[in-house]
Design goal:
By secondary structure, the chain is of the alpha+beta class. It has eleven helices and 18 strands. It has two domains: 3-225, PPM-type phosphatase domain (Phosphatase 2c, domain 1); 228-392, no CATH class. The protein has helices spanning 48-67, 72-82, 159-162, 176-188, 193-207, 242-250, 261-271, 302-316, 322-325, 331-342, 370-383; strands spanning 6-15, 25-31, 37-44, 94-101, 107-113, 119-122, 125-126, 132-136, 139-147, 153-157, 216-225, 228-233, 255-259, 276-277, 290-291, 297-299, 345-350, 387-392. Strand 12, helix 6 (242-250) and strand 13 (255-259) form a beta-alpha-beta unit.
């Protein structure tokens, strides 16, 4: 496998300690000057505003310095010199976990300071990886170098995860071995990083009886093969460009999604096939799909994409609607699964022709301009870590 065939799928989210408005954990994900990907999870001492400030500063200092090529020694020295230590407990300002993935996505460095051990899952099983101890300004840092394989999965945790269930479901909390056992089958079936994170956090919340006793953060990193997807919506401004648009669209590797009635007709004409409509309304808010031989998915346009955008915004937040689009048979759910879970790189082909039906002033603003919907969807997909290219016709 060539290095360009692998990419990194990253998803993270947090539960705030019950009663707190701010999270005491912070995750930073940046691209370094050498093209490597850097992920930092910092856990501030205590909870609330103070912990939030400490974790944010710690993560920002580390990510900024390492992104510019400085080493962990410089980072730790800067943090120790800059941030305070708790005067009452004389404990560190913030603990942290760092994972730096090489541009090839075939090797990574992992640095751990007092956070729960990083879980590495390979072929559905938790596997140990060696580390060496470094002492920097009286701080013991664990450093590891790992060779990566396709479908490797790493779970970075704050200590809220291992404290889940203390005094309730478990006497001593959720042990790291039990967390690994919980995640193993989910990683084996290929869940996305975001979905793995959401599932694990939901279990943590359940063990806390819905009232987390500590800030709880999960950051999942998956090494996966690149999967391109192509989506075309709207006819071109110049009708004579229809065949050229479709030639470029179908010439790309990966799945092909066609959105919109007129667009479907142009695609069918290009393929010399017929559009076969369906009358199955799986979701009353989403028009039914159609089929064209040689096309992976054919849907209605603006209404369907508007629903996909709603799912995208939720996915980037708490991912509460996953249970709906994750199994839905309507067009919006099917597009969401392909774009959010299957794809790594998405090529949009957007026709600039104006559809008179979308200019009705009585319709909501989100229905008036498909360009806005596509731009917003592309922006959300970029936030998910997808590679995006938009071509207009």
């Amino acid at each position: 496998m060539t290095t360009s065939e692998l990419c990194t799928d990253i998803g993270f989210h947090s539960l705030n300690k019950f009663g707190e408005q701010l999270c005491g954990d912070h995750v930073d994900c940046v691209t370094c000057c050498d093209g490597s990907t850097l992920v930092v999870l910092a856990d501030g001492l205590g909870s609330g505003v103070k912990a939030s400030i400490l974790s944010t500063l710690t993560a920002k200092i580390i990510s900024t310095m390492m992104a510019e090529g400085l080493g962990i020694d410089d980072c730790v020295q800067t943090i120790v010199s800059t941030l305070p230590i708790c005067s009452e407990r004389e404990l560190a300002y913030s603990t942290f976990t760092i994972m730096r993935i090489a541009p090839s996505n075939q090797e990574a460095d992992i640095i751990q300071y007092d956070n729960p051990p990083v879980i590495m899952i390979r072929v559905g099983k938790s596997v140990p990886f060696p580390h060496q101890s470094l002492v920097i300004m009286d701080k013991t840092i664990l450093s590891s170098h790992v060779k990566l394989q396709e479908n490797d999965c790493f779970m970075l945790l704050s200590d809220g995860a291992v404290h889940a269930g203390v005094g309730m479901k478990y006497n001593f909390g959720w042990q790291i071995e039990d967390i690994a056992a919980f995640v193993e089958p989910l990683a084996l079936i290929g869940q996305t990083a975001k979905t793995l994170t959401t599932t694990l956090l939901e279990e943590c919340s359940r063990l806390y009886d819905g009232k987390p006793g500590d800030d709880t953060t999960v950051c999942t990193i998956r090494i996966r093969r690149r999967e391109p997807v192509n989506l075309v919506i709207g006819p071109p401004a110049n009708p004579d460009d229809g065949m050229r648009m479709m030639s470029l669209f179908f010439g790309k590797l990966g799945k092909h999604i066609v959105c919109g009635g007129t667009t479907s007709s142009i695609a069918a004409a290009y393929l010399h096939k017929s559009v076969v409509p369906s009358l199955d309304f799986y979701d009353p808010e989403v028009p039914p799909i159609s089929t064209i031989e040689g096309v992976d998915l054919v849907t209605e346009g603006v209404i369907t994409i508007n629903k996909v955008l709603e799912y995208a915004h939720d996915f980037l937040g708490e991912n509460k609607l996953y249970s709906k689009w994750g199994i839905g048979r309507d067009g919006a759910s099917m597009i969401a699964r392909i774009l959010f879970e299957e794809s790594t790189d998405i090529n949009f082909y957007v026709g600039r022709a104006i559809n008179p039906a979308h200019q009705n002033p009585s319709l909501p603003i989100s229905f008036s301009i498909k360009m806005h919907l596509v731009d917003e969807l592309a922006k959300s997909l970029k936030e998910m870590g997808k590679g995006i290219k938009v071509s207009y016709f």
